[in-house]
Amino acid sequence: MSDALGRVRAAFADAGVTGWLHAVDIDTGAQLDAGADQPVCTASVHKLCLLVTLHELAAGGGLDLTEPVDCPPAGRTPGPTGLAAMRDAVRMSLRDLAYLMTAVSDNAAADLLLHRVGLDAVNRTTARLGLARTHAVHTFGELLATLREDAGPGGARVLTDPHVLTRLRALDPARTNRSTPRDMTRLLSAVWRDEVCGPEGAAAVRRLLGLQVWPHRLASGFPFDDVHVAGKTGTLPTLRNEVGVVEYPDGGRYAVAVFTRTANPAATLPAADAVIGTTARLAVECLRAGPASRGGRERDDRG
Question: What mean pLDDT is predicted for residues 154-181?
Answer without folding.
Answer: 90
